[in-house]
Amino acid sequence: MIVGIDASRNRSGGARAHLIGILNESNPTENGIDHVHLWSYKKLLDELPDFPWLTKHSPKVLEASLPKQVYWQYFKLKKEAQNAGCTILLSTDAGGISNFKPSIVMSRDMLSYEKGEMKRFGWSKARIRLIILKYVQALALKRAEGTLFLTKYASEIIQNFTGRLNNVRVIPHGVGKNFKVYSKKNDWKAEEKRGIRCIYVSNASMYKHQWHVIKAVASLKKKGYPLELLLVGGGKGKAQELLDQCKKRYDPTASFIKQFDFVKHDEVPDLVAESDIFIFASSCENMPNTLIEGMSIGMPIVCSDRGPMPEVLEDGGLYFDPENPDTIQKALEEIINNVELRSKLASRAKQLSDNYSWSKTGIKTWGFLRDVHTAKISE
């Protein structure tokens, strides 16, 4: 059995982390697979070690414009995969349009399918792109012999639009081992701390709600809590404008709110571990990767009650409405003042994070590929 992987569109941090994670931490040859052929752009392939069971393909067209990449994917990839001897193809993005059969398509986008989320973008290029993606992805998912979702929530929401899909499997993302090495103490007392650092790791986007987080933190600051807010991740457009306006209004001297536009992923664990409270305020996710990272470190977490977040965090944090600063403030205040609750939640979150590892993700993914391949050849 020879597996082809189309990772030509893996540009997001989560998509790249997924591919690097399963290839680094699981061996497909131990799971019934003879060889893997991987198609992607050069920068991503260069981040991967060489393995005897892996052949990397980097067509020059994948460095070209998006229309040229789509042309290659539709007209060329099938032939290249056949020439390599591939017997099944994994598309790591549901926006892919390859004609190779049999195939498994991974769904990792949610914005197109969540009611109300697209409206945040107005009638813009971003919204038009999301509408097009919605139908392209739905077609790819319907045509595939197997569909891979990252959470049960995503599976249910997307199938409400597509109808029941063939051979569905839920395999969540893992988390890097570098997030699991910390042993945090969360028994600090608010009145004894000079500063309580809250951290929110996310790019600025309309569904991330950093401005509501700023309002909540500023309100607590006004009440006398020694809070600091660290926003890790840059942004542009309307979301960054809203964020900047709130920073200017509530912290004009930049005394307690800081934003880091870009931080290398391997530097994030230390930044999180050095903080006191982890905030996750997104209203739309397929798989909340940074939430799992915070859980793995053992952080006290206040979290959005939307999407798959309750499925992932379960009873390991306090929840709030990400569009209501008052509820964010209430959750923060409770976790600041209740030492026993804070320690209990952080311990539970870390325990739950044991469900997520790239080794588990890889083994389940290779197993799904094997099952679909076996079913196809036995028809």
TrEMBL record:
One of its GO terms (biological process) is lipopolysaccharide biosynthetic process. GO terms for molecular function: glycosyltransferase activity. Residues 193-351 form the Glycosyl transferase family domain. SUPFAM superfamilies: UDP-Glycosyltransferase/glycogen phosphorylase. Keywords: Transferase. It holds the Pfam family Glycos_transf_1. CDD domains: GT4_MtfB-like. This is Glycosyl transferase family 1. It comes from Roseivirga seohaensis subsp. aquiponti. The lineage of its organism: Bacteria, Pseudomonadati, Bacteroidota, Cytophagia, Cytophagales.
